[in-house]
Amino acid sequence: MKKLEDLILTYKDFPKKGIDFKDVLEILQYPDIFQDLILKMSSTQFLKNAEAIISIDARGFIFGSAVALESSKPMLVARKPGKLPGQLLTREYDLEYGKNSLSIQCNALKKFDSFVIVDDLLATGGTVNCVSKLLHDQRKETLGLLTVVELKELKGRSKLDFPVQSMVTI
Ligand code: AMP
């Protein structure tokens, strides 16, 4: 019988030498474990107080939309460059392996004041911090981060000024 931890696969030196890439996609091939994970993520206390979820491109969308359905919360997306139409708020950030930027659609953001961020993995915290700063600049509140995997060694949690609920700590 497989457990959630068994479904987080490690690929050495991907996408760059020195990075141990943690692949969460195997979880999707085990519906019972996936469902159990979504139920657990959806029962997090700080999620109950949030008006909406904001999911991060791209694996965050998989888990975020399932949590949004289970918790009956609206969901927004934070996307990588060139993907979203309309008026956008954009911010650059540092990755464990490189630089990127994320954008949120202004019209969607206007409707809500408090958010829970959902992503597949917390590493250095740069990605989540970028989204939280984008929200903060618009006077929106981040109530917490829900993530499937947390890479403890990189201490991403210590850079965030809101609670983190991770399902697997490595
Ligand atoms: P960070 O900004 O360093 O916390 O990185 C988190 C984001 O980058 C998440 O959206 C992850 O999907 C991705 N990421 C960073 N490091 C890894 C890793 N070692 N394995 C898989 N995804 C990663």
What do you see in this structure?
Helices cover 26% and strands 34% of the residues. The protein is of the alpha/beta class and 170 residues long. The chain has a single domain (4-169), classed as 3-Layer(aba) Sandwich (Rossmann fold). The strands form three sheets. It has a five-stranded parallel beta sheet with strand order 4-3-7-8-9. A two-stranded antiparallel ribbon has the order 1-2. A two-stranded antiparallel ribbon has the order 5-6. The longest helix has 13 residues, at 59-71. The radius of gyration is 15 Å and the shape is globular. It starts with 8 loop residues before the first strand and ends with a strand. The model has no long low-confidence stretch (mean pLDDT 96). Bound molecules: adenosine monophosphate.
